[in-house]
Amino acid sequence: MQYSIEHLLHINAPVNKVYNAINKVENLRQWYTTDVEENSDKTRTFKWGEMFLLIKCTEIENEKIKWEFINSSMPIESLYMSYELSENESKTRVKFTYGDFDEKTDFFANQNFSSAKYLESLRQFCQTGIGEAFGSDTYRS
Question: Domains, the chain, ranges and CATH?
Answer without folding.
Answer: 3-128 (3.30.530.20)
